Amino acid sequence: MITGMTGFGSCDIVFGKVKGSVEIKSVNHRYLDLAYYLPSGFSSYEDKIQKSIGRYLKRGRVTISIRITDKPQMTVSLNKEAVKRYVEIANSLSKELNLKNDFSTADLLKMPGVVEAKETFVQANDLWPSVEKCLEKSLVSVVAMRKREGKALSININEQLKRMSVRIVQIKEHVKALLKNKKEKLSNEEFSSYQKSNDINEEISRLLHHIDEARALLKTSDGAGKKLDFIAQEMQRETNTIGSKVQDKEISAAVISIKSKVEKIREQANNVE
User: Fold this and answer.
1) What does DSSP assign to residue 43?
2) CA distance 35 to 106
3) Dihedral of alpha carbons 101, 102, 103, 104, sign
């Protein structure tokens, strides 16, 4: 079954006190085109992200956004050995010089080397396993949405093909009636010339073949979008030839109707992966 190219998937990252999210959005595009929005330190993982996406998606403009939404702001550590040393020195000076020992806890905390505060940085290497799992979950959601779109596209395109087939039958019947009418009015030589110049059996046969090919293609998923667009172009070419060969009001109306449906198929093919 064909798949579309519109999809969305997201997943929440949880790694200790670090929280974040992965979001993947995809829309139609001629090729696979990736855009990254990554936190600091994650640029080196672009190749791995690309390979993960390549396993799931073949076409589409895909936006990958990884965000860190919550993390510990800083870590504070106390050097107890330094505290003990400062207290020993204070007590020693107090006894030796007969000074009042009013060394407070607040004073101790201000001393160099007692308290060390460090800003917390999220290490990409540590966080990557959690990000990778979220990336996979998001891609599964994207593919599921694209499959649902593909199902809707398939129904629509099949309906256009069905209507085209009806119009082709009408053209064949009307051409048959035209030939019968002309045979009664023209000489054998004139009728033979008219029949030859208005022979569209080959174009009808190819057009019906293209319809069968398109229907078969709707059941596949390997590069269906580009192939479907090519088939639609061939349908358009055969239809134009039919219109140019048979100059008749009813045939022209049927040709216009078929071309309209072919154009709709081409529009939908732009949304097929």
Assistant:
1) G
2) 52
3) positive
Using only C-alpha atoms, the chain has a radius of gyration, in whole angstroms, of: 37
pLDDT of residue 223: 77
202 alpha-carbon distance from chain centroid = 39
**CA-to-CA distance for 14 and 19, rounded, in angstroms?**
5
Confidence of residue 16 (pLDDT cuts 50, 70, 90): confident
* Residues 103 and 64: beta-carbon distance below 8 Å: no
**pLDDT, tens digit (0-9, with 9 covering 90-100), for 186-217:** 888 888 888 888 899 999 999 999 999 999 99
pTM over cut 0.70: yes
CA distance 27 to 20: 24
Q: Could you tell me the domains of the chain?
A: 7-71+123-145 (3.30.230), 74-119 (no CATH), 150-269 (1.20.140)
Structure-block tokens of residue 212:
């069968």
Counts of helices then strands in the chain (DSSP H, E): 8, 6
Residue with tokens 């090729």, as numbered in its chain? 31
Distance (Å, rounded) from C-alpha 60 to C-alpha 116?
Answer: 49
pLDDT tens sequence across 62-105: 999 999 988 766 677 888 888 888 888 888 888 877 877 777 88
